[in-house]
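Can anyone check this?
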Amino acid sequence: MATAFWRVGLALIPLLIWAKATEKTAADTRPQGLADYAMLVLPGVFLAVDLAAWHLSLHMTSVANATLLANLAPIFVTLGSWALFRAHVSRLFIVGLATALIGVVTLKGGPMKLGGGDLAGDATAIVAAVLYAGYILTVGRLRSRFSTNRIMVWSTASAAVCIAPMVFFLESSFMPTALFGWAMLIGLAFISHAGGQGMITYALAFLPPAFSSLTLLLQPVVAAILAWILLNEPVGLMQAVGGIIVLAGIMVARRG
């Protein structure tokens, strides 16, 4: 939980600097009332509880189960887009989504690698996927009116405020004890959150939320490649095949 807090808390530094530097040139709409402010805060609430559930699931169930189940978010984004906003979902897109998910399972070692987890932990990981779907859907709606900067600053700040009490009640330590710990947190905050989530928010003005969330299934593929390059972890045949299936699923979904 402390890691999740610092991820969003430290990310406010580059986000606020960027917002200040571009305030005179950015084309943006100002919030008009309480409803607008509530909508800008809502993605951060989803993200805070998502991060909490995700971090908690890693302690409760196997890493394979937690990672795979958290990657089910595109299913819930697709269902939410259809149920809430009546978005058209083609059969070809569904085929691509199913193919990409099969690829993720294959990349993780296949169905035989699943199991050995805890039912409550697995359920917590699924809750994390649903909450992340809520985050993607609300950001997608906001991007029709507000800039990336405004959404990122408000959602990140509200996420930090929501996570802070969880850290207070659930964690025994709050601050990293070494410079290496601070380096990891700064990397998470500046690169993964300000950079990665910022790009996702930017892209949601141009791509449907369902397809955007589906492309995020590239994360385990990229993680396997980086682990091979940076950590000398071998990429096995099943990982390679799984990565290819994920890419094929995304290409099919794009045509749909």
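Reply from J.R.: I decoded it. The chain has one domain: 2-15+34-255.
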